[in-house]
């Protein structure tokens, strides 16, 4: 197991906390994680962290207009490309449980940051099956996931896996380019999902668009 364990950084005195001191909850969710303060994540500065938090506040405000977030409909939520855990942080005031997933193929390893914020998370190669024990999900967020994997495997396989993970009448929010979203929508229709492409929250001139899809509840007709 030693190869799977990340050792804590060395400290120079007994008064220091290995890895950096963490705030108490709920402040911990929004304070700058020690890994970012120490510069351990290339390209992620405290300023970028604050900007990411602000982006997610704006996104959540927009999402509340297009899906019933406040009605208690979503309890188990998955972020398929969690990055710094901003979606989970923005949702922390709601009675929900969020699984943060860092794609194994992403440019930055940010899972440690997610843990330091007090959230749960895991790595996943989305060309492979995801272990759903002990739960399935009511809401899945897939921001930029298909841009990462479109040249690695058939996106149909990822969507079929999402269909398995998602509960009937559950919702998926995709964020990607129009070209990718049109492909996703075509496959989603074959899976009997209802979907709609919408403009980015900043307006129609942003190249990134949003696709909201709902898995319908259906059963095969019995043959007499």
TrEMBL record:
Pfam families: Methyltransf_29. It is an enzyme of class 2 (transferase). GO terms for cellular component: endosome; membrane; trans-Golgi network. It is found in: Endomembrane system; Membrane. Residues 1-20 are annotated as: Disordered. It is a single-pass membrane protein; Single-pass type II membrane protein. Keywords: Glycoprotein, Methyltransferase, Signal-anchor, Transferase, Transmembrane. GO terms for molecular function: methyltransferase activity. Its EC number is 2.1.1.-. One of its GO terms (biological process) is methylation. Belongs to the methyltransferase superfamily. This is Methyltransferase.
